[in-house]
Design a protein that fits this description.
Immunoglobulin-like
């Protein structure tokens, strides 16, 4: 899975919806044609808070006010409306409408996404654009697999990051130690923690991919795994621009998912500890 490496590929959804005097819009259509391109994607900054952007690109010269921007898919439990609407979208301009992604619906194997944009033109007439878009790069499937592989893993064994870092002095430098605790829930079945991976901020001393291949069942005892890190790089902008550097990529086998990847976010306190530690380690 490459979701942690892309700057805006995750959830990349695009379609063109043209509303003209001949039709294509619910309600009345403005006399001047309104042509909208609608996309749904994630910036890197959207990964950790689990949100996405509905991007509305007004291809016409007519200014509009988007009064509602909604994204829905059977892979998510509820429709997602942006709190940024109403907002103006000028002619030949683009505006993003963020939405918080709802919980995954993991019993659904396939889904058709839909975006609904309601808007008002300058003369007061109203229009609606409804798009059933293509999904390049299987982006929605990637998000759904990440959500549901974690659900299936944590049905059998929860996984939690420690509430504070520990440190080890090696060669005059502090190595950051982060404990992950895996605790079986007692539910039937088995899951396997296959590996952890580096992040844009944190490099594992054992290598980019650290293999565990540890299986957990209801009969397993809780297990704490120590991850040890050095900074991936020491440029100050790595910290200043950090988006997902403190989200630990974890690869698992769980239920129907094999070699699936999801991200485990640390607490805000531990995130701040990690950012401060990178500065100390790098001598800023």
């Amino acid at each position: 899975m490459v979701a942690f490496r892309r700057s805006r590929a995750l959830l990349a959804v695009a379609a063109v919806a043209a509303c003209s005097a001949l039709g294509g819009c619910a309600a009345s259509t403005p006399p001047t044609a309104v042509r909208l391109t609608v996309s749904v994607f994630q910036y890197r900054s959207d990964y950790a808070p689990r949100q996405a952007q509905i991007e509305v690109d007004n291809r016409s010269g007519t200014d509009i006010e988007v009064t509602s921007a909604r994204f829905e898919s059977a892979w998510f439990q509820t429709a997602m409306s942006s709190k940024s609407a109403p907002s103006q979208v000028l002619g030949h301009a683009t505006t993003d409408f963020p939405v918080v992604l709802s919980a995954a619906a993991c019993s659904v194997n396939s889904a058709v996404p839909r975006v609904v944009i309601d808007y008002t033109a300058k003369d007061g007439t109203k229009g609606r654009t409804t798009v059933t878009p293509d999904v390049p790069f299987h982006s929605l499937a990637t998000v759904h697999a990440s959500d549901c592989s974690r659900q299936q893993f944590e049905r059998v064994a929860t996984i939690r990051a420690a509430s504070a870092l520990r440190f080890e002095l090696v060669g005059g430098k502090q190595i950051a130690l982060l404990d992950l605790t895996v605790t079986p829930t007692g539910a039937p079945g088995s899951v396997t923690l296959r590996s952890t991976e580096d992040t844009t901020l944190l490099a594992q001393r054992e290598g980019q991919l650290r293999t565990f291949d540890t299986t957990f069942t209801a009969a397993s005892a809780p297990q704490t795994i120590e991850l040890d890190y050095t900074p991936t790089r020491c440029e100050q902008h790595v910290v200043a621009e950090d988006k997902v550097g403190t989200v630990v990529p974890i690869r698992v086998d769980a239920g129907t998912y094999r070699n699936a990847l999801f991200g485990l976010a640390v607490s805000p306190a531990v995130k701040n500890e990690l950012l401060d530690w990178v500065g100390r380690y790098c001598g800023w």
